TrEMBL record, chain A:
Chief location bin: cytoplasm
Segments forming domain Pru: 4-124
Pfam families: Rpn13_ADRM1_Pru (PF04683), RPN13_C (PF16550)
UniProt subcellular location: Cytoplasm; Nucleus
Matching PROSITE patterns: DEUBAD (PS51916), PRU (PS51917)
Swiss-Prot/TrEMBL keywords: Cytoplasm, Nucleus, Proteasome
Molecular function via GO: endopeptidase activator activity; proteasome binding
Domain DEUBAD: 193-294
Gene3D superfamilies named among the record's database cross-references: 1.10.2020.20, Proteasomal ubiquitin receptor Rpn13/ADRM1
Family matches, as PANTHER family: ADHESION REGULATING MOLECULE 1 110 KDA CELL MEMBRANE GLYCOPROTEIN (PTHR12225), PROTEASOMAL UBIQUITIN RECEPTOR ADRM1 (PTHR12225:SF0)
Annotated source species: Apatococcus lobatus
InterPro entries membership: DEUBAD_dom (IPR044867), Rpn13/ADRM1 (IPR006773), Rpn13/ADRM1_Pru (IPR044868), Rpn13/ADRM1_Pru_sf (IPR038633), RPN13_DEUBAD (IPR032368), RPN13_DEUBAD_sf (IPR038108)
Cellular component terms per the entry's GO annotation: cytoplasm; nucleus; proteasome regulatory particle, lid subcomplex
Protein name (record): Regulatory particle non-ATPase 13
Automatic annotation (TrEMBL), chain B:
Classification of source organism: Eukaryota, Viridiplantae, Chlorophyta, core chlorophytes, Trebouxiophyceae
Name of the protein in its database record: Ubiquitin carboxyl-terminal hydrolase
Domain UCH catalytic intervals: 6-223
PANTHER family hit by this protein: UBIQUITIN CARBOXYL-TERMINAL HYDROLASE, UBIQUITIN CARBOXYL-TERMINAL HYDROLASE ISOZYME L5
Gene3D superfamilies: 1.20.58.860, Peptidase C12, ubiquitin carboxyl-terminal hydrolase
Catalytic activity: Thiol-dependent hydrolysis of ester, thioester, amide, peptide and isopeptide bonds formed by the C-terminal Gly of ubiquitin (a 76-residue protein attached to proteins as an intracellular targeting signal)
Length: 294, 332
């Protein structure tokens, strides 16, 4: 369900570092990293100055992050409290220095930031709301610093394209200098994303045109007849069933119950994790398939 | 498992409503869906006990006066809509309990028990009726899958509202469970056909909603058609046996058969109509059996069988390739 407004997931006091040829130059301003969940469920990574005046100024940086876009890590080979928002494409990287009092907590904060920017709560009717968020973005544009930024819609389109590029480029060369553990983190974030997307309903997977050919196998009716209501156990009944609105409706309800957690895969004796229809199917495959495992 | 007091949403389908009425203990009544406000069609469905107009609810100003329910106690059964998911059943009850037909024990008891109650208590009595709730809920998928209503409320999913139109004791009423009392639309003379008096009111609603693209349905609660046709057929057969020439009783088309040949073709027509009713009820029943059956064991065992036969992988591949989708529901 949607929250009524923006939800702040995490705030970390941090200043900016700017790339200057081959060095990073510190910006002395006091700042704040903020990760928010927008009304449409998308995650935004923001940085703004912690000004005493105009507390609700527009953030200077406001980036929508899809899972798999980026991670927040300590800058490798650096001894100071410097961190980076590391993207697949290096020219998008952003750099920060921690301004929180306790350095011991930097690592945990960084992990949490990574986790937050890689989370994703799909809201319902997101596509319809793309227009609304674009409008909201315009309305929210306060002119305190005159900072410009791409509209939410443009950003979303750009981000999606970059994610697609990142997914295509998964075969990164091994032995990349700082890269391996980062890549592993990116990959696991992308895996997380795949599991979090709702996926199709069982009524779409078990479409009539897919089922009817399968149902021509007479052993299927033989074995499954006991699970059909009495009086509806003929081959014709079976074929009528899979094309019926009542069956599709039950498949939809079942798929919703799986996804919402009302029904658990363990209810079916499946060991697997997950709550999507795909997870359900994979769970069944793993448990009952006779194929030799490689 | 849902709370045992919960009412689930059911489909607004004439086959569902017809069986619902029967399972509440009322014989000889069926529900037909009307796709247009066709007066000729309406007249052909007589006797019509009441009309139900259902539409996606929205705020409307309506300054028409409502009758004080106290004044009508005892001759109009008016209950307030207390349980949102029960609104279809309540609209049907509004007609059954005012139609002057034989009710069966469950509904007779309800009517007697609540006869002195104000509308809100009547509504609560309906909501608390375990028998009625059980029959109502039996038309949604059985436990353990009970839809989480909040999650199912997608953008397009509607909150439907039901209004009943019914003639009671010489006047035409609009019964709306969200209002404080019945609305009297007009008086009816003995010669008046109430359907023709109700039509303009319904028509103006249709036009109002059509402009805002609000979807609506119209259903008629009528006497069981097969009964009606069978009675007519029996009369014709009787009189043709006795050699009389007999006028067809109250059929939809004008003009009477005055000759044996006409009587024959009329009988043929009635028999065909009876056959159509049998087919329709059979279809309705098939659908209701499906609605009431829990297909989870079937689905699970089917997928298991496919996995054992090595035929599940293509479905997995297809599911993995599908774009995320919203789950569309057919409930209204």
């Amino acid at each position: 369900m949607q929250s009524n407004g923006v939800q702040v997931l995490q705030e970390v006091r941090a200043g900016r570092l700017f790339k200057d040829a081959s060095t990073l130059r510190a910006d002395s301003r006091k700042g704040l990293i903020r990760v928010i969940e927008r009304e449409d469920g998308l995650i935004s990574f923001q940085w703004k100055e912690r000004a005493t005046v105009q507390p609700d100024c527009d953030p200077e940086t406001d980036i929508i992050t899809f899972p798999g876009d980026a991670i927040f890590i300590k800058i490798p080979n650096s001894s100071t409290r410097s961190f980076m928002l590391k993207f697949v494409e290096a020219d998008r990287d952003l750099f920060f220095w921690m301004q929180e009092p306790r350095a011991e907590d930097d690592a945990i904060r960084a992990e949490q930031l990574s986790a937050n920017i890689n989370s994703y709560s799909p809201g319902e009717g997101q596509e319809e709301e793309a227009m609304d968020t674009a409008d909201q973005a315009q309305i929210a544009e306060a002119s305190c610093t005159g900072a410009t930024r791409a509209s939410a819609e443009e950003q979303a389109g750009v981000q999606a394209a970059q994610l697609a590029a990142a997914l295509r480029s998964i075969g990164m060369p091994a032995g990349m200098e700082q890269g391996e553990s980062d890549v592993a983190q990116l990959l696991s974030a992308m895996q997380q994303r795949r599991q979090q997307l709702p996926g199709p309903s069982l009524s779409e997977v078990l479409k009539p045109e897919v089922l009817l050919p399968i149902l021509q196998d007479p052993t299927i009716l033989q074995i499954l007849a006991e699970h059909l209501p009495e009086g509806q156990r003929t081959q014709q009944d079976l074929e009528n069933l899979v094309t019926s609105a009542q069956f599709r409706h039950q498949l939809d309800v079942f798929s919703s119950a799986l996804r919402s957690g009302q029904l658990d895969l363990s209810h079916f004796g499946l060991d697997s994790q997950g709550s999507s229809v795909l997870d359900f199917l994979i769970g069944i495959q793993e448990r009952f398939s006779q194929a030799d495992k490689q | 498992m849902s709370g045992s007091d919960a009412w689930t949403t059911i489909e607004s389908d004439p086959g569902v409503f017809t069986e619902l009425i029967e399972e509440m203990g009322v014989q000889g009544v069926q529900v037909e869906e009307l796709y247009a406000l066709d007066e000729e069609l309406l007249m052909s469905l007589r006797p019509v006990y009441g009309l139900i107009f259902l539409f996606k609810w929205r705020q409307e100003t309506d300054n028409r006066p409502t009758l004080n329910p106290e004044d009508t106690l005892g001759h109009i059964f008016f209950a307030q809509q207390v349980i949102p998911n029960a609104c279809a059943t309540q609209a049907i009850l509004a007609i059954l309990l005012n139609a002057g037909i034989k009710l069966g024990s469950t509904l007779s008891e309800l009517k007697d028990f609540t006869s002195a109650f104000p509308p809100d208590l009547k509504g609560m009595a309906i909501g608390n009726s375990e028998q009625i709730r059980r029959v109502h809920n039996s038309f949604s998928p059985p436990q353990p899958i009970v839809p989480d209503e909040a999650k199912l409320a997608e953008k397009d999913d509607e909150v439907y509202h039901f209004i009943s139109y019914i003639p009671i004791a010489g006047s035409l009423y609009e019964l709306d469970g969200l209002k404080p009392g019945p609305i009297k639309l007009c008086d009816l003379d003995a010669k008046d056909e109430w359907l023709l008096k109700a039509a303009p009111h319904i028509q103006s609603r249709i036009e109002r909603y059509a402009q805002s693209e609000i979807r609506f349905n119209l259903m008629a609660v009528i006497q069981n058609r097969k009964q009606v046709y069978s009675q007519q057929l029996a009369k014709l057969q009787q009189s043709s046996q006795s050699g009389e020439v007999h006028q067809p009783m109250d059929t939809d088309l004008a003009g009477g058969a005055a000759s044996p040949a006409d009587a024959d073709s009329e009988m043929g027509r009635l028999m065909e109509l009876i056959q159509q009713e049998d087919d329709k009820f059979r279809q309705w029943h098939e659908e209701n059996v499906r609605r009431k059956h829990n297909y989870i064991p079937f689905v699970f065992n089917f997928l298991k069988l496919l996995a054992e036969k090595g035929r599940l992988q293509p479905l997995i591949d297809q599911a993995a390739a599908s774009k995320p989708a919203s789950f569309s529901h057919q409930e209204k």
